[in-house]
Amino acid sequence: MSRAAALVSVLEACDSLAIVCHDNPDPDTLASALALQEIATSSEADVSNIAITYGGSISHQQNRAFVNLLDIDVEPIGAVPVDTFDCIAFVDHSKQGVNTSLTTELEPSIVVDHHPGPPVDAAFADVRTDYGATVTIFVEYLQELELAIPSRLATALLFALHRERLDYLREPTIREYEAALAVYRDANLETLERLYGSAFSPGTIDAIGRAIVNRKQRGSSMIASVGRTTETDALPQAAEYLLNVEGVDTVLAYGIIDGTIRLSARSLDPRVNVGQLLGTAFGDLGSVGGHNDMAGGRLELGLFGDDVGDDDEALLSLVDTRVRQRFFDALNLDGASST
């Protein structure tokens, strides 16, 4: 039995399905959710009740445009009674309590992901860490099941493939190019153009501006604080922007969001695995992880702020010092010159 057929076999036993995206969902998890919904509503599976849900917020301007232009029916996790659904599916993440706001008491029966992590115990689990995107797996499912791919779904899949891997050449595999070719014919190119033209919010521009001003560099590595912000997706955008600085190949952007220190790292250096790097630097302080070229995490602010009370300026200074020191120490750059 193929993996696609095995997925359908599990879906056949579900009268209702809650598809859970990871927190602060990006196009890879959202397009994967749409693809799973398409498979679940097909005549092969025929699931009658499906909800797509997420934790955190959709703040990145392209992600907001992605949801609006493609008319994706996705609801905050607090608005969906996930515990009443027969089946729960995780797409683009695999563990309760890790990059998801869903309670750890609820276990998924379906998991499709491409991120590394501990073994997954589910009725259907397909975690392929040698793939560059979760949507690549879903394109293969759709092809194996010989399902027609509607234009809206093809557009979502193609945009997700580009944003996850192909736009920045973040170590895509040949499978990402093959998947893009498979859905290109049915994608709406006008909608794709509008997605790429979506505007930055003022808050995102402000956060990226603070990262530029606050950047510190040692060797070819850079760290930058966006300070306090409500724009979660400003962090990866700041990290990606700063990778354009001459001589820089590894960047960590961080900031304080809703009482939590959020991290986003990017690297073009094949010798650096930023998922492991963040684990070495901050693994004892919170939840971190990712790939060799892109990673993220969150740290509890209280672990840094006990010494400064209500002095916000002192708190930010303390966080900056400790996060920067841990990052450069993990890179063995403690003695390198800093700019």
Automatic annotation (TrEMBL):
Transmembrane regions listed in the UniProt entry: none
Any one Gene Ontology molecular-function term assigned to this protein's record: nucleic acid binding
Domain DDH, residue spans: 18-160
Residue ranges of domain DHHA1 in the record: 222-301
Database matches in InterPro entries: DDH_dom, DHH_sf, DHHA1_dom, Oligoribo/pAp-PDE_c-di-AMP_PDE
Name used for this protein in its record: Bifunctional oligoribonuclease/PAP phosphatase NrnA
Gene3D superfamilies cross-referenced by the UniProt entry: inorganic pyrophosphatase (n-terminal core) (3.90.1640.10)
Organism (species): Natronosalvus hydrolyticus
Pfam families: DHH, DHHA1
